């Protein structure tokens, strides 16, 4: 009875799985995301912890047996500043935040971003901890003076439940960890001008680390003191584990708020001369890594087009079906995030565009052009990450059959969809089971899935469309300004 808890940006979900990997109990609670002036995006740590308590209590009450352990995962990046008790000293800054846009632009111009990338394989972006720490160090240094730890969502919740100050190696990968040694690279920290804030970085937990609920955490969740708790990996690698990614070259597409594209590798080396973008994430297996390209495009763009056109998300599939591949000549670049793009390139000034519009263009063409452009962005990411094997997919976007077919056609390969949508929680539970020495059958957990096949008649057209996308992107990058 291991309860997996996935603390997402807008939703916290708890799930318990049976021996076959099927969900037997689940609960969810919404989180509040505050979009403020100046590109600031923040969350309240107390509210987030409250959502964890809500879902865990609800699931525990529905189980036939007592809870045996708690497995945490959740959103990565951002900056969650706390004191020694785990209390927030500043509202949690989301990975969506854009206040450090100018910091990142300066680092790109003067070579800091390239220097950090060459040392750690982490392409920095405005919502990463390095840029946010630098921004606060310049504009609100008193906040950092009050903090004991500058961490992330999962370790912030862990501290409130167990009293432990630590961080999972996957979160620590961004942006200061050398993936080969799994230690912080002090030269990368110095390059960002943050050597005097080095004490705020918690040391990564050891592989298979297990923590215990303290009295405060037990009272919050209604569970026994001393209950085992694991924390991490964060949601990107947890989803890869939960979906079934196990062999080098295999990848996973997460069509969520972000479009996260990841490929498993057993080689810690990376192209140090390449464009400084993406992430090289350590996993619970000390000999495996995930080359991640988490683009800022994703279902947030679908929400935007629905709002713009006055339609509901349930209308997306019928509209996609009523516009032919190629969207009757309408083309798009999908960069709608206020903080620009972070993979497979980094540009805080990246912005969306539509072309090929005419008086004959309909809503279906606009919707299809946007969905196709996001699929092209996925291909761009996977090309950079080195996808060569089996491809899995998860996230809210996979609930659209028509969009899934577009992804398969653009990527030119079948896509495996796990039967249970809670793959992040599933990955956290599998990680906890391994840490606790609990036996489980990975093949049995992965066998319940379906496959979306490529439609051969669409491949050539999308190959030309991808070339057009690349050309439009190259032209646009020379025009973007903050």
CATH architecture of the domain at 2-237: 2-Layer Sandwich
Q: What is the top-level CATH class of the domain at 2-237?
A: Alpha Beta
Q: Count of DSSP helices?
A: 17
Percent of residues in beta strands: 15-25%
**How does the helix and strand content classify structurally?**
alpha+beta
Low-pLDDT stretches:
none
Structural write-up:
This protein has 482 residues and is an alpha+beta fold. It contains 17 helices and 22 strands. It has helices at residues 45-62, 101-110, 112-120, 129-139, 141-146, 153-162, 169-172, 186-191, 215-221, 235-243, 299-309, 316-322, 363-385, 401-411, 423-436, 442-446, 456-477; strands at residues 2-7, 11-17, 23-30, 34-35, 41-43, 69-74, 80-82, 92-93, 149-151, 177-178, 183-184, 211-212, 228-231, 251-255, 259-265, 279-282, 289-295, 331-333, 353-355, 391-394, 415-418, 449-452. Strands 3-2-1-6-13-12 form a six-stranded mixed sheet, with helices on both faces. A five-stranded mixed sheet has the order 16-17-15-14-20, sandwiched between helices. Helix 1 crosses helix 6 (153-162).
Short description:
By secondary structure, this protein is of the alpha+beta class. It contains 17 helices and 22 strands.
Secondary structure topology:
Blueprint: E1 2-7, E2 11-17, E3 23-30, E4 34-35, E5 41-43, H1 45-62, E6 69-74, E7 80-82, E8 92-93, H2 101-110, H3 112-120, H4 129-139, H5 141-146, E9 149-151, H6 153-162, H7 169-172, E10 177-178, E11 183-184, H8 186-191, E12 211-212, H9 215-221, E13 228-231, H10 235-243, E14 251-255, E15 259-265, E16 279-282, E17 289-295, H11 299-309, H12 316-322, E18 331-333, E19 353-355, H13 363-385, E20 391-394, H14 401-411, E21 415-418, H15 423-436, H16 442-446, E22 449-452, H17 456-477
Helix pairs in contact: 1-6, 10-15, 11-13, 12-13, 13-14
């Amino acid at each position: 009875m291991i309860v997996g808890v996935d603390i997402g940006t807008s939703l916290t979900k708890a799930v318990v799985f049976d021996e076959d990997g099927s969900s037997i109990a689940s609960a969810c609670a919404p989180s509040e995301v505050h979009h403020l002036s100046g590109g600031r995006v923040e969350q309240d740590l107390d509210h987030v912890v409250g959502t964890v308590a809500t879902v865990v209590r609800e699931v525990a009450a529905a189980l036939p047996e007592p809870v045996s352990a708690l497995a945490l995962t959740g959103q990565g990046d951002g900056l969650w500043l706390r004191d020694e008790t785990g209390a927030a000293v500043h509202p949690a800054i989301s990975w969506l935040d854009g206040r450090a846009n100018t910091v990142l632009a300066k680092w790109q111009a003067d070579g800091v971003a390239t220097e950090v990338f060459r040392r750690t394989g982490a392409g920095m972006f405005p919502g990463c901890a390095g840029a946010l720490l630098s921004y606060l160090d310049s504009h609100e240094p008193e906040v950092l003076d009050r903090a004991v730890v500058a961490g992330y969502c999962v370790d912030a919740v862990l501290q409130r439940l167990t009293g432990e100050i630590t961080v999972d190696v996957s979160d620590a990968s961004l942006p200061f960890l050398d993936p080969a040694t799994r230690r912080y690279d002090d030269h990368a920290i110095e390059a960002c001008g943050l050597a005097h804030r080095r004490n705020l970085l918690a040391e990564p937990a050891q592989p298979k680390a297990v923590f215990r609920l303290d009295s405060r955490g037990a009272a919050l969740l209604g569970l026994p003191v001393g209950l085992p708790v694991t924390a991490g990996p964060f949601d990107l690698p947890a989803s890869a584990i939960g979906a079934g990614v196990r062999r080098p070259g295999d990848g996973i597409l997460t069509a969520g708020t972000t479009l996260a594209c990841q490929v498993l590798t057993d080689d810690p080396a990376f192209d140090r001369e390449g464009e400084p973008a993406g992430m090289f994430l350590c996993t619970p297996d000390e000999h495996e890594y995930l080359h991640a390209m988490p683009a800022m495009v994703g279902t947030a763009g679908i929400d935007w087009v629905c709002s713009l056109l006055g339609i509901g998300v349930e209308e997306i599939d019928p509209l996609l079906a009523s516009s032919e591949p190629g969207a009757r000549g309408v083309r798009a670049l999908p960069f709608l995030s206020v903080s620009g793009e972070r993979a497979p390139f980094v540009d805080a000034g990246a912005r969306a565009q539509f072309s090929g519009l005419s008086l004959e263009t309909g809503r279906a063409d606009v919707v299809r052009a946007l969905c196709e452009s996001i699929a092209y962005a996925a291909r761009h990411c996977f090309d950079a990450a080195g996808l060569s094997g089996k491809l899995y997919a998860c996230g809210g976007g996979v609930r659209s059959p028509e969009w899934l077919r577009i992804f398969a056609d653009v990527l030119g390969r079948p896509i495996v969809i796990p039967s249970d949508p809670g793959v992040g929680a599933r990955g956290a539970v599998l990680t906890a089971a391994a840490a606790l020495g609990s036996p489980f059958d990975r093949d049995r957990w992965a066998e319940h899935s379906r496959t979306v096949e490529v439609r051969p008649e669409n491949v050539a057209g999308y190959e030309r469309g991808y070339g057009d996308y690349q050309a439009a992107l190259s032209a646009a990058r020379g025009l973007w300004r903050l």
